[in-house]
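To whoever is on call:

I kicked off a structure prediction for a single chain this morning and the downstream step that reads the tokens threw a length-mismatch warning. I double-checked the sequence; it's 124 residues and nothing unusual in it as far as I can see. Pasting both halves so you can look.
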Amino acid sequence: MSSIKTTHDLSKDLTLVSATGGLTANDFITWGAKYTSRTATALILWDLLGADLCKISSDEIRLIATRTKGIAYVSKGGKIAFVLGKPCYFGGGRMLEAYNETAEMPSEIRAFRTIDDAKKWLGV
């Protein structure tokens, strides 16, 4: 069973997302739909260190990138950091970066292995 918890630090224009358990592409898509209807920030930090992403295929990563385009527009010019601990999950994060770049989205996506590195890149 998966769990996604979202908190906001509006003083830093930051949304913190912490996920645990087995996640699917639909979990990301559903979160994105809810996020765009709530308080949006320019910076998003996904902590996926406690999540299991093994059931997400490369085609589903492309689907996540396509379906969550609205998040990039909501936080136009913003940054989205994904923290992924396992090497295979990190590779999926790099694929998401590539899809974002080829689609020329208005915000940046980067994958990181540590929360500290992600926070440095986000500037928080």
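Update from on-call: the warning came from a stale cache, not from the record. Cleared it. Sanity check on the structure: The longest helix spans residues 87-102.
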